[in-house]
Amino acid sequence: MTAAPTDFSRWTSAHQQRVEAQLQAVLPSPELAPQRLHQAMRYAVLGGGKRIRALLAFAAGEFGQADPDRVVIAASAVELVHAYSLVHDDLPCMDDDVLRRGKPACHVEFDEAIALLAGDALQSLAFQLLAGQRLAEDPAIQLEMVRLFAAACGSRGMAGGQAIDLAAVGTHLTVAELEFMHIHKTGALIRAAVLLGARCGMELSATQLEKLDHYAKCIGLAFQVVDDVLDAEATTATLGKTAGKDAVRDKPTYVSMLGIAEARKLANELRQAALAALDGCGERALRLRELADFILDRKF
What we know:
The chain is mainly alpha-helical. The chain has helices at about 5-25, 35-45, 50-65, 70-90, 105-110, 110-130, 140-155, 160-170, 175-185, 185-200, 205-235, 235-240, 245-250, 255-260, 260-275, 285-295; strands at about 100, 105.
């Protein structure tokens, strides 16, 4: 039996508020020296975004029957790294954007040097969280969680995907090359969110972990396809960031390569593949299924 939409809405809101409160608590006080750096960190993280990665961690935590008090730590670590990546992406040396989450980008509100340091400090804080509290009964599993998260952030994950993205501006990639880029740039952190949330709970079999990882891989790519469609169709006011920037910069996207109709079709195929990965998982995967729909149907 599927939960009512209002139930999912309440679940989403409650977990967004929970991770927001946790982030408020773990970020350094803006009065603590160096004040300007701490102000920039809080500016970049708090009060913005849909916390989709955190929601995926909570949903996977329910799959693994994890204690939410543990999952919120992992979810917060993922959100800190995501925020750092946005701060760095917006810098003039990267994507050079001035708007993020409906307000001036961090380097505009502060300056480039502080924005760079804020991103560095947010990443460090994320690992401090993961290492500072018990998230799994077996210390070996928690060590594996830290390793997994580090790989998702690094040159074979998010940072590497960004490097490929920068090199791809003005070039013509194949769809396979575009997928490879986004498996790293966008997908790696989404996959980490799911696996970290799940591993906060009971020990899962290799088959269960493979199912979760395949779900996350598909939904991560679907997220990016929808992002490309929104960049082409939505307004800056709706997105909270500069719309149409990909086309202006001649960046290869799913829309530029496939067209909007085919991109939408691909996103739905990826959603179906993500849901198929959860076949046989029963009610414990309910929130993961609902999030697949939520991600595909988002308007901004």
